[in-house]
Amino acid sequence: MSQLIVVGAGIIGLSSAVFLQQAGFTVTLLDPAQPGTGCSFGNAGHFATEQVFGLAQPALLRQLPAMLLKADSPLSIRAGYLLQAMPWFIRFLANMAPHRRAAIQQALTALNRQSLPSWQLLLQHCQAQPLLQQQGALLVSEQPAARQLQAQYTAYQQAGIAVRLLPQAELLQLEPALSANIACGLEFTEVGHTANPFALCQQLFNTFRQQGGQYLPYKLLRIIPQGQQQRLQTDQGELCCDTLLIAAGAASHRLCHQLGWKVPLEAERGYHLMVNAVPLSRPVSSAERKFIMTPMHSGLRLAGTAEFAGLNATANYRRADMLQHHASALLTAPLAPLDSNSRWCGNRPSLPDSLPVLGACPRHQGIYYNFGHQHLGLTQAAFSAELISQCLQQQATAIDITPFRINRF
């Protein structure tokens, strides 16, 4: 079949490459970085299929002033970057309109509902089923009344999410390592996590290579569409292919701009801190502190925060260090970073409507997109790859992908 190049070797690109190989395509992966070493390396490891609500929620408006003023806030916007990010935030606020929130929820629900079955199919193909654990997840609150948590519980129920509202006693029975500071919480029973996101990427890459896939550590500089063929100028020379899939994460908007699309994509930076192992059996998120703790093979991963500073800004590792303070309030065990390499940061590819870009390019034959999954890249990677494979085979897609079209902006 046709020669196909996938630009981007993160979890989205890797999943796409394997699915496309299964469909009979000859696939080359193009990425200057080693596969799985970006956000796919440092994410929280949570297959968050319960997250069917867009991030643009009206309740956020009341919380924003305090968030921006607190040093340990889950949200940070660097002063020098605020003006540049303003158009993105204006679009973000527009998505708080009721009709937009409803449409976004419907689209996310369609993606998330089939994400775990698609992952199970992909991991079975890669003989990596143990890398997906389905122990559920918790969202905990330190507020005894927890009216906000009650409201979230109702919203999740109405959205068809499998969830239980638990008092403190039941939470501590499920996870004895949790502190008595926690008053109540939600248990999501049909979600999963991986204890090693990088190993997951490596397994996908190994399968890709074993089945004849080629990886080139090249940086794509320019795309030149030429009818039914694509010319690619890289830092190592020129390549040609019949079909091109752009799955380059936070760098995708630069490539899309060359093809005539102004995609409002921001690099929303997240951080993690690896600390000593704590006997948790599932991911635990904090309703108030807005971060997550996930048990990993090498220790406990504390992850979260959102920082808007630009794609190439230097890291502010105080954003990682503050996660230890937050976690210490929720756990009984003392915490300490594992080593000098325990801190990490990466750029989430974030769009103001919380939806990815997925599908064919309307202007250029043979070019496709799969990027912009924001906080749900790991969650949606396998099903997004399955959908892209269906697109390239000219098949009817399993769900309507109209909400994810690139020209919606």
TrEMBL record:
The protein's name in its UniProt record: FAD dependent oxidoreductase domain-containing protein
FAD dependent oxidoreductase domain mapped to chain residues: 4-390
One Gene Ontology term, aspect cellular component: cytoplasm
Molecular-function GO terms, alphabetical: oxidoreductase activity
A Pfam family this chain is assigned to: DAO
Entry keywords, A to Z: Oxidoreductase
Keyword rRNA-binding set for record: no
Keyword Transport recorded: no
Protein species of origin: Arsukibacterium ikkense
